[in-house]
Specification:
This protein has a single domain, classed as Beta-Lactamase. It has a 6-stranded antiparallel β-sheet with strand order 3-2-1-6-5-4. Helix 1 packs antiparallel against helix 2. The longest helix has 17 residues. Helix content is about 45%, strand content about 25%. It is an alpha+beta fold.
């Protein structure tokens, strides 16, 4: 079982001293790396009123830049993450290809598994934490850790970022 005490304390410390808008997600990335493991990490916001999603944070800005919006696609991923508000998990590149059109880039980056953790506030999905790693990396234990231990820190990072942007 992964020990969350040290990584969670480091996340709390980083969040409490954050001054730049990316700092809360930098801290969440570090927490995810230390607990469930990630090669590629992004945060997508969702605006259900306009039916658009936007990448607002990325660990790989050259491959996955923070810019623009894309329309929300209604598929099994949407049903899992937005409707049921559960983690979407795919552990092979072939499975990823069934829902993500950028699967070839994902594969070139050495990734073949994904966990998309929904972030829900006020009974509204506001975004997803997207964690990718090599094929078969996200075992049932890691998925459980992500859904049970990263949900509250993800909400905290999202809200801290909004506060820092507003203070900006």
């Amino acid at each position: 079982m992964t020990d969350f005490h040290g990584p969670l304390a480091a996340f709390d410390r980083a969040l409490s001293i954050a001054r730049a808008p990316d700092a809360p997600f930098d801290a969440l990335l570090d927490l995810a790396r230390a607990t469930v493991g990630v090669k590629l990490f992004t945060f997508m916001t969702a605006d259900m009123a306009t039916q658009t999603a936007r990448r607002s944070y990325t660990s790989h800005p050259q491959d996955y830049p923070v810019s623009g919006t894309k329309p929300i696609t209604y598929n099994r991923w949407f049903e899992t993450v937005h409707t049921r508000r559960e983690c979407f998990v795919a552990n092979t590149l072939a499975d990823i290809a069934t829902v993500f059109p950028d699967y070839e880039l994902i594969g070139r980056l050495g990734c073949g598994s994904v966990i998309n953790l929904p972030v829900v506030l006020g009974d509204t999905p506001v975004g997803t934490v997207n964690m990718l790693h090599e094929e078969q990396h996200y075992t049932p234990e890691r998925v459980s850790l992500a859904s049970n231990w990263l949900s509250v820190p993800a909400k905290a990072a999202y809200l801290a970022r909004r506060a820092l942007q507003a203070a900006g």
